[in-house]
């Protein structure tokens, strides 16, 4: 019989095994016996063995020395306590720094950034080491963003968004002035390449500009782009020193100039202008070609929303071409010749494809660009020989398909010719193209469709056949004929030959008045005819007092200048009409009428003097601000007692009396519109 062990004695060691017959085995558990017992367990209970294999592999991979760690009550060995190791893995967003923590070698901290910033802002001499250190830190910040795994191989390492932002902000705000101070360019605006220390800073400067362009390419926010472009504008002097970097910068800037938000476009153009001016001989040809091709590419589709961008590109391109007119002549001659070749192919080969190569917005906007350029340089002789071929291209464009469908294109071309004639002070026979519309179309023909508003010709070149059947088509044609005739005759109203030039218009208008039976059309053109005849009589009266010969060009020019200064009846009438027309255009562009229709209309009753003197009554309840016409509608807006101090009964009584006034004249007396979201912008398509 087995003896019961004495409790006072020490417990036996757990590493002894018990045999199958119940006797104690003094033999220690070896790896071989452990493997055998596991194989036996696999045969007896395979499910439990699979469970161990999935959840506790360390138990199955038994090591020889593992039994030493398992003994809790070993007399000869001390008890071991598990000590956790350090947590590995750095956080990318390590914004908060521990002062007691161990500083990683090369890691940029906010304290280091503030120290560098103080060195850049210092009043003393700027050290080259300070500039190179800041540029290396900027490179480390860029590598953190551009590298796939976020690691940097450089001298510095930027971690955390706060440090990254601090480094970028330091470079943007303080680096340009520090470089200028180091090179000694603060007072003298000389070329950086001629400075004494430029050779020393050349390498770091190239690296910084490359990183800056990478950052510019990766940014999409308009606000950040604005800041970076302002910084690049400051650094443009140094960009122009390196030809390869200049080309990279211009490529990116031209893209921003053509397709970004308004502020970004302007800043991009200013950077292009400054870089090109500093390296004009090498870059002007490339820039003019790239900008013109970008302009043509981006003016393919015209709408009220794209007009401002197209007009801005055209104006800025004119400024670029005026930098050097001798260089520009070759470009302008080549591109006008290209337009003429397209037009010749359309005239000779009567196919739709050739016609579409001319009758599109890219062709018309190109004509507009060259007309603006020749107009802007009318006081210089370089580009004036190109005036005649350009006028011939525009007039033959009108004659290519002179049908009713292409009246909008005709009006666009006529408008270009009028501006060209006015700015260059050159006579161009424009009247036939305007008055021809009055004789070639039958305005007495009854329309098959009714449109509420006239058609807008500002963003179209061709009309659909369904639009020709609307009454809005005829209204728009008369409006455009009236406006163009008035503008052209007003521009030449001070000419000594005005009675002779305007004779064709007088004859055609009189003929139209005889044949047309629509009173709205005849009324407007009769008014225009009266103004033209009045101006003709005025010029004839002044011309009767002339004592010099008409062949004396100087005396004729002096006489016309005096009449222009004195003013003519037609010019005065046109200026008054143009003011009203501009206001209407602005309303149309900003859609002010549509927005105003959706805004709440608040009618405040006029308070008499007696009511002003009388004490204000106490409030009894909320006032219905926007009463509904039908009694069923219950969702009316209301204001609290603190907002209005009138009785609800008074408002109901005055509501009936104000209804008649609202029908006669709908105005908005008071509308609370926030200052940030101004509905009406001081903006015009033609005055961009």
UniProtKB/TrEMBL annotation:
Entry's Gene Ontology cellular component terms: Noc1p-Noc2p complex; Noc2p-Noc3p complex; nucleolus; nucleoplasm
GO biological process, one term: ribosomal large subunit biogenesis
Region (Disordered): 1-39, 59-97, 600-676
Native species: Euphydryas editha
Membership in a protein family: Belongs to the NOC2 family.
PANTHER family registered for this protein in UniProt: NUCLEOLAR COMPLEX 2 AND RAD4-RELATED (PTHR12687), NUCLEOLAR COMPLEX PROTEIN 2 HOMOLOG (PTHR12687:SF4)
Acidic residues bias (residue ranges): 629-644
Amino acid composition bias (Basic residues), ranges on this chain: 1-13, 649-663
SUPFAM superfamilies: ARM repeat
Stored InterPro entries: ARM-type_fold, Noc2
GO molecular function: histone binding; transcription corepressor activity
Protein name, UniProt field: Nucleolar complex protein 2 homolog
